[in-house]
Amino acid sequence: MENLDETLDRLERDGFVWIENALSPEETEQVRQRVFYAKEQGWQEGLNAVGNMWFDTLLDREPEVFGPLVGHPSLAPILYAMMGRQCQLRSYRAHINPGPYLQEWHMDFYGYWNERRDATQHRVAVTPTSINTTFYFQDNRPGQGFLRFVRNGHLAEPPHLYPRLDHAAFEKWCYEQELVTLYPKAGDAIVFLSHIPHQGGKENDEMERCNVVCHYQVCPMHESVWYVSRPRPFKGSFPFQKPETIPAVAYGSRA
Ligand SMILES: O=C(O)CCC(=O)C(=O)O
Ligand SMILES: [Fe+2]
Fold first, then answer.
1. Atom of ligand 1 nearest to the CA of 213
2. What predicted TM-score, i.e. pTM, was given to this entire model?
3. Does 213 sit in the ligand 1 pocket, CB within 6 Å?
4. Is the residue at 255 inside a domain?
């Protein structure tokens, strides 16, 4: 059994860790059903060109269903060990992939390297960092669906981002790198550094596929920082601010 420090070492080394059965089957089924209920209600913000339908309001609409994923006990030791009490929920976004889906290669925190560069120009500025916890609600398998990363894509600034994103060149660069493909199953979570390039996709257009993404940040970021989603209100966004919410340290992520 891996201990917490070893999990954190892997998160820093690989840029991601895969937590199996982060949610119980009951939690998985309940959240899955409510994500599809949201689609029935027409609560989506839109359906983008790569086949991703997104929902930004579910935490506010149904906090009793969606709230437990924030600082969920299965991930809280990792989040707390990485970020401590400054750990803040930045944004909360659910997705459904209703048809063909191949996501563009992207980083959720596109601006990471810009902000890091900028921080070196100031005496006390810190580089903001951000972590994704993405929960899956169906079994991704070869031939069905996947999530893939650029191996070590978090360790150095990818080309073609700065001073202006050349997305076609960035995607071409990503495809040329060594890739790591994961097949998270229903109830699993992938915890990753939000600035690692990644791409979700379906190989079977008929596959039911959805996910919920909680983004965390260590300190509030200015409004124009380059990030895929808008920040939530500050108040109430710190899952570990009260002593009783701080997780016990002992933790093993896998048998
Ligand atoms: O698995 C997917 O569809 C991609 C998820 C994603 O982009 C994310 O979690 O940030
Ligand atoms: Fe993403």
1. 9
2. 0.95
3. yes
4. no
Q: Probe ligand 1: pick from 108, 149, 211, max atoms within 8 Å of CB?
A: 211
Q: What is the Cα–Cα distance from 220 to 130, expressed in whole angstroms?
A: 10
User: Judging by beta carbons within 10 Å of its beta carbon (0-12, 13-18, 19+), is residue 220 exposed, middle or buried?
Assistant: middle
Domain residue limits at 58 = 4-235
Atom of ligand 1 nearest to the CA of 140: 1
User: Cβ(184) to ligand 1 under 6 A?
Assistant: no
Q: What's the full length of the chain, in residues?
A: 255
Query: Which amino acid, one-letter code, is at 10?
Result: R
β-partners of residue 2 are none
Q: What is the CATH number of the domain that holds 200?
A: 2.60.120.620
Residue 253 within any structural domain of the chain: no
Domain count, the chain: 1
* Residue 159: C-alpha distances to residues 38, 44, 74, 104, 171 (Å): 38, 33, 35, 16, 10
**Predicted local distance difference test score (pLDDT) of residue 255:** 33
> DSSP H helical segments within the chain, as ranges?
4-14, 25-41, 58-61, 63-66, 76-83, 112-119, 167-176
Distance from Cα 208 to the centre of ligand 2, integer Å: 18
Residue 253 Cβ < 6 Å to ligand 1:
no
Over the stretch 93-152, which tens digit does the pLDDT of each residue have? 999 999 999 999 999 999 999 999 999 999 999 999 999 999 999 999 999 999 999 999
pLDDT tens, residue by residue, 179-198: 999 999 999 999 999 999 99
